[in-house]
C-alpha cells in the first residue's frame, strides 16, 4: 500500500478534485454499499465505498486501509477540504470525516464492478466450463472478458484445452490452469490475455513438464502483488495456431508481480520482471 501511495503522490499533484487527466474516480452508491453483505464497489478487495458528507447517498470507491494518521480532518464544516486533490469522506474507522486523496479512488486502482455486457463474472468457485460458476449462469463464450473476483477459484481442468477466441481473464481471486486427470498439459487454442491483480493468483497445475501452450498474440500481465505459482518450474510453450509449430519455450518459477509476458503475432517473446 505504501508503494501505491508514493507512486500516486506524483499523480495527485497533477490532479484536480475528483478528476484527473486520463483517469476518473470510481463512484459508488453509499446506501447500497453500507452493509457488510452488500455488493462491493470494486473488483479490488482493498477498496471500499466511502460516503460523502456533502451527499451521504453517494460515495467514492477508494483504497480502504489508509491509516488515519496519514490523512487530515475535513474543514470544520465537515464537508469540504482545503488540501488540494482530496475529497472529504465519512470514515467510520477514523471516527470523523477526513480528507481522502482523490488519486487513491481512481478507476485504475479501484476498477469498478463491470456491467455484464461481454463480461462474465465468477460468483462461485468451480470449473470455467460449468455454467453455475458464472453470475450469468452461462459459461463464457468467445470474445468474453472473464472476471474472477477475490475469494473465488476458477479451474481450467475439465478438458486439456480452452478453445474460445478473444478471451481476456482478469484475476483478482485464483485461476488454476491444468491438473485435470488424466491430462498433463493445457492448451489455449486461441490467443488469450490474462491480467493478475493485487492478491490474484494464477496456479500452474500442469504436470510432468507438459506445460501450458500459449498461442502467439497472447499476454500474461501480473501487477504488483499478483502471483504466478508453479509446482516448478512452469513450462510455457509458445506456438502458432496455423501450423502448431512451437516458436519458443520459457521456464517460469514462482513470480510476484510486476511481471509481464507478451508474445507478438510473429512469435517474438517479451518477458520482463
Ligand atoms: C442507491 O441504492 C439505493 C438502495 O438500493 C437506491 O434506493 C438508490 O436509488 C440508489 N441511488 C443511486 C444514486 O443509484
Ligand atoms: C456521514 O456524514 C453525514 C453528514 O455529517 C451524516 O449525516 C451521515 O450519517 C454520515 N454517515 C456515516 C456512515 O457516518
Ligand atoms: C479440477 O479441479 C478441481 C478443484 O481443484 C477438482 O475438485 C477437480 O477434481 C478437478 N477436475 C479434474 C477433472 O481433475
Ligand atoms: C509423471 O512422471 C512420473 C515420473 O516419470 C510418472 O511416474 C508419472 O506417471 C507421470 N504422471 C503423469 C500423469 O503422466
Ligand atoms: C494476431 O494479431 C494480429 C494483429 O492484431 C492479427 O492480424 C492476427 O490475426 C492475430 N493472430 C492470431 C493467431 O490471432
Q: What does this 3D model show about the protein?
A:
By secondary structure, this protein is mostly beta strands. The protein has one helix at residues 2-14, and strands at residues 19-20, 23-24, 27-29, 47-52, 55-63, 72-73, 86-89, 98-101, 119-121, 126-127, 145-148, 153-156, 161-162, 167-171, 174-177, 186-188, 192-196, 201-204, 212-215, 219-222, 227-230, 234-240, 245-252, 255-256, 259-263, 269-272. A seven-stranded mixed beta sheet has the order 9-11-14-17-20-25-26, with no helix packed on it. A six-stranded mixed beta sheet has the order 10-12-15-18-21-24, with no helix packed on it. The protein is elongated. 35% of the residues are buried. Bound molecules: 2-acetamido-2-deoxy-beta-D-glucopyranose (NAG) (5 copies). Residues 184, 207-208 line the site of one 2-acetamido-2-deoxy-beta-D-glucopyranose (NAG).
Amino acid at each position: 500500500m505504501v508503494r501505491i501511495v508514493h507512486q500516486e503522490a506524483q499523480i495527485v499533484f497533477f490532479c484536480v478534485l475528483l478528476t484527473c487527466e486520463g483517469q476518473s474516480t470510481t463512484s459508488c452508491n453509499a446506501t447500497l454499499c453500507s452493509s457488510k453483505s452488500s455488493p462491493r464497489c470494486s473488483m479490488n478487495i482493498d477498496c471500499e465505498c466511502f460516503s460523502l458528507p456533502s451527499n451521504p447517498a453517494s460515495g467514492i470507491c477508494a483504497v480502504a486501509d489508509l491509516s488515519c494518521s496519514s490523512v487530515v480532518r475535513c474543514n470544520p464544516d465537515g464537508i469540504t477540504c482545503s488540501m488540494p486533490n482530496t475529497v472529504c469522506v465519512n470514515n467510520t474507522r477514523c471516527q470523523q470525516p477526513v480528507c481522502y486523496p482523490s488519486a487513491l479512488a481512481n478507476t485504475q486502482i479501484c476498477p469498478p464492478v463491470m456491467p455484464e455486457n461481454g463480461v462474465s463474472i465468477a460468483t462461485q468457485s468451480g470449473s470455467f466450463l460449468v455454467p453455475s460458476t458464472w453470475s450469468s449462469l452461462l459459461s463464457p463464450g468467445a470474445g468474453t472478458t472473464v472476471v474472477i473476483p477475490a475469494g473465488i477459484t476458477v479451474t481450467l481442468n475439465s478438458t486439456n484445452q480452452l478453445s474460445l477466441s478473444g478471451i481476456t481473464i482478469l484475476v483478482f481471486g485464483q485461476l488454476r490452469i491444468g491438473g485435470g486427470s488424466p491430462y498433463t498439459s493445457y492448451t489455449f487454442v486461441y490467443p488469450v490475455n490474462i491480467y493478475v491483480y493485487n492478491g490474484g493468483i494464477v496456479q500452474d497445475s500442469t504436470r510432468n513438464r507438459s506445460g501450458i501452450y500459449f498461442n502467439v498474440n497472447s499476454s500474461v500481465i501480473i501487477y504488483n502483488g499478483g502471483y504466478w505459482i508453479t509446482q516448478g518450474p512452469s513450462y510455457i510453450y509458445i506456438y502458432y495456431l496455423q501450423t502448431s509449430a512451437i516458436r519458443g519455450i520459457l521456464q517460469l518459477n514462482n513470480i510476484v508481480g510486476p511481471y509481464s509476458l507478451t508474445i507478438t503475432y510473429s512469435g517474438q517473446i517479451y518477458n520482463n520482471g
